[in-house]
């Protein structure tokens, strides 16, 4: 594709979704759109940014010498994510077991999170935001009574909690639990081994852990403390983000990762989330009560969550509107 004299890209002509010629489609920004099904592929990387295609189309390095265009014969190997991941939540209904019997909390949640996208879920306390995160992660206390959750078409609800983690889902909990007798260092290595299906190479692993802790401004002695035991609010959140950076999930659910943080800690933690996102094109579902964190982690989409369902959706401007006017308008509707 020749966009200008200096901008020439080489990409396979056939869409990864179906036998459709991509060169007959339009270029939108730096993406090529499949004219038949609407998938868009990054001209530089070949990675799709919207469905139905979910796998990369090969791209080739291009060199311009005067008017001559040289294209390499073999495709450029992919760096980072070559596959777009899609988490699809459809009409999700969830009850929680209470002393007075089952209580209905989620009342039909629809949400799609793709690689590289950041979705903010904002809503008043008690609206069911944590319930949504726990249900997707597989907490046994939450009973799914209807709807579906899939990750790249695979039924997430049929998976055990560790299968969900291996499939690429990660939950940073609002209230992380203590694990007495297990050090942070052991915990991280065990989790990494379980998720990758093999133990990480010791030398690089130790270096990775140290670098990640350093970037999160965590004291090295922290690694020898027991998980969450006596951790301050800020330490707990840093530890969640440390896991995120080392375990490299495809989709991260972050439940109030901003709560209890002062401005400095909020910045450090947010930068960690942004690094993890950039490193492997992670998709993020960011649950928050306050707009403050959205200054550091920019959402592509904002969803207002009230009374167990999404009642409004928009772009980042919706967060500004909530900042100014609060949730009253939506509560009155519910
Ligand atoms: P949010 O995260 O938006 O503050 P939650 O998902 O934590 O909301 O809670 C939604 C509702 O479900 C609340 O009324 C809460 O009391 C109830 N709930 C959540 N978990 C439980 C539980 N384990 N036992 C009893 N009630 C629960
Ligand atoms: Mg909550």
Structure characterization notes:
With 334 residues, this protein is an alpha+beta fold. The protein has helices at residues 129-137, 161-167, 184-196, 202-215, 233-247, 263-280, 316-325, 328-333; strands at 10-11, 27-28, 31-33, 40-42, 48-50, 59-60, 62-65, 68-71, 86-98, 101-114, 118-122, 142-151, 154-155, 169-172, 179-183, 226-227, 251-255, 283-288, 301-306, 309-314. The model has no long low-confidence stretch (mean pLDDT 92). Bound molecules: adenosine-5'-diphosphate and magnesium ion. Adenosine-5'-diphosphate (ADP) binds next to β9 and α1. Magnesium ion binds at residues 129-130, 174, 255-256.
Number of strands: 20
Alpha carbon gap, first and last residue: 50 Å
Number of helices, where a helix is a run of at least 4 consecutive DSSP H or I residues = 8
Strand line-up of the largest beta sheet: 14-17-18-11-19-20
Percent range of helical residues: 25-40%
By helix and strand content, what is the structural category?
Answer: alpha+beta
Arithmetic mean pLDDT: 92
Question: The biggest beta sheet, please?
Answer: 6 strands, mixed
Q: Strand share of the residues?
A: 25-35%
Itemize the secondary structure elements and their pairings.
Blueprint: E1 10-11, E2 27-28, E3 31-33, E4 40-42, E5 48-50, E6 59-60, E7 62-65, E8 68-71, E9 86-98, E10 101-114, E11 118-122, H1 129-137, E12 142-151, E13 154-155, H2 161-167, E14 169-172, E15 179-183, H3 184-196, H4 202-215, E16 226-227, H5 233-247, E17 251-255, H6 263-280, E18 283-288, E19 301-306, E20 309-314, H7 316-325, H8 328-333
Parallel strand pairs: 11-18, 11-19, 14-17, 17-18
Antiparallel strand pairs: 1-6, 2-3, 3-4, 4-5, 7-8, 9-10, 9-12, 12-13, 15-16, 19-20
Helix pairs in contact: 3-5, 5-6
């Amino acid at each position: 594709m020749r966009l200008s004299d200096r901008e020439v890209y080489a990409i396979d002509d056939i869409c990864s979704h179906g036998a459709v010629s991509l060169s007959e489609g339009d270029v939108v920004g730096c993406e090529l759109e499949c004219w038949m099904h609407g998938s868009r592929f990054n001209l530089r990387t070949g990675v799709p940014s919207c469905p139905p295609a979910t796998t990369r189309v090969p791209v080739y390095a291009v060199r311009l010498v005067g008017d001559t265009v040289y294209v390499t014969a073999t495709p450029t190997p992919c760096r980072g994510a070559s596959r777009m991941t899609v988490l699809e939540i459809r009409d999700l209904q969830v009850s929680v077991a209470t002393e007075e019997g089952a209580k209905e909390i989620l009342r039909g949640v629809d949400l799609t999170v793709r690689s590289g996208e950041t979705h903010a879920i904002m809503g008043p306390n008690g609206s069911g935001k944590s319930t949504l995160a726990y249900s997707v992660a597989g907490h046994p206390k939450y009973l799914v009574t209807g709807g579906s959750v899939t990750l790249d078409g695979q039924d997430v609800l049929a998976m055990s909690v560790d299968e969900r983690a291996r499939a690429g889902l990660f939950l940073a909990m609002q209230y992380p639990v203590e694990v007495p007798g297990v050090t942070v260092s052991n915990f991280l290595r065990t989790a990494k081994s379980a998720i990758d299906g093999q133990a990480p190479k010791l030398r690089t692993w130790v270096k990775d852990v140290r670098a990640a802790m350093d970037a999160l401004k965590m004291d090295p002695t922290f690694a020898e403390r027991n998980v969450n035991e006596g951790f301050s609010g800020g330490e707990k959140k840093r530890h969640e983000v440390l896991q995120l950076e080392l375990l490299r999930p495809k989709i991260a659910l972050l439940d109030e990762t901003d709560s209890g943080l002062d401005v400095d800690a909020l910045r450090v933690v947010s930068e960690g989330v942004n690094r993890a996102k950039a490193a492997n094109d992670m998709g993020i579902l960011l649950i928050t009560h306050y707009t403050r964190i959205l200054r550091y982690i920019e959402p592509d989409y904002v969803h207002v969550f009230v009374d167990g369902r999404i009642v409004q959706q928009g772009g980042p401007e919706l967060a500004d509107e909530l900042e100014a006017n609060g949730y009253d308008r939506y509560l009155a509707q519910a």
